Amino acid sequence: MEILWVLMALLLIGAALGPVLRRRRGAIRQVPAGSPDAADPADYGFLRQEELDIRLPGPDEDLEQVLDHLLRTQDWRAASQLLAGTGKEGELRWQRVQAFAGMASLELAQRPGGVSENPGAQWLRVWRAEAPKDPGGAAVHAEFLVQQAWRTATAGTDEFRIILEEARGACAEAALLAPGDPVPYIVELSLARGLGYPREEFEQLWLKVLDRDPAHFGAHLAALHYWCEKWHGSRADAHHFTDAAAARAPQGSLLSALPLFAVFEHLPDVNLVRGFHQSEIVTKAVEGARYAVHQARHDDPMAAHVRHLLLFFLVRGERWGEAMEQVLHIDGHVGALPWTLSPDPAADYAVYRALAVAGYEANGGSPATLRH
Length: 372
What we know:
The chain is mainly α. 55% of the residues lie in helices and 0% in strands. The chain has 15 helices and no strands. Mean pLDDT is 87; it is low at 1-37.
């Protein structure tokens, strides 16, 4: 999962359906209108593509209301109050911090300072100036800097490192203002990847997270990236990390779904193995993730992240009924992997949803047989 809102300035892209040969960005053959395989997701009550909310992975009515209020009024106080009323335990605070930071980052991209009379993210600057001891504002500021580094600079450049070093100081300040809150340390996990913390230093940071919330799913996703082959680990490191977390997952935890994210992070650019998405490693990871979402609390905010990735793998594995089950749970929000890797998350999601519907109907399903 990496950063909510990270690619919210949308460009319309072509989407496709077809043979599963390429990675998550691969082309898929589109089903022509009028084809026997064509199906209309609207028949199932699903939202139109333009109605999909790309800000969040799933519903959070309080957050959505505050985001709309913030956009309309630029008054930071409602955001501060929401975070003040969000407990340090669990995933919700982390998701809300990400959402506010993402909104500020997007606004700044649209209205850079010095160019507009109403520069973007002005509300965040005012928040920090008027309430410098507010732990919520400090955490949002730290996450905002991390998102800015990944959004505006190239990894490894001086500019990138300068922004992340500033974020590192902001994380330390946020941690001092909120003892016991894992969020500042989770923010630091992302900048630790960018700055290339040595393993010993990263593991010390990880212990600080575990001391505060050992089963935090979002923290595990942030740490997973460090251990991936494309950053500072390997395929074996990533699978060892996720398998160990899944093995110690408490009852009702989503940690059993982590191996599926490790598989996703190491998908080949071109899959030359027939039936890869029905292979043992994928099937085992998918079943672990399905078990996790069935056992999780109904209000676990991270369950939507797992279901979005399940939809991706279940469609590619041609498990249409199970894919439709995920759509029933997540339709309406698309701010999660794998869709956020696309310039147009809603379009990417809509393609997979359409394929799930078409496959479901081609195997005898219909709106009447789908369990709501």
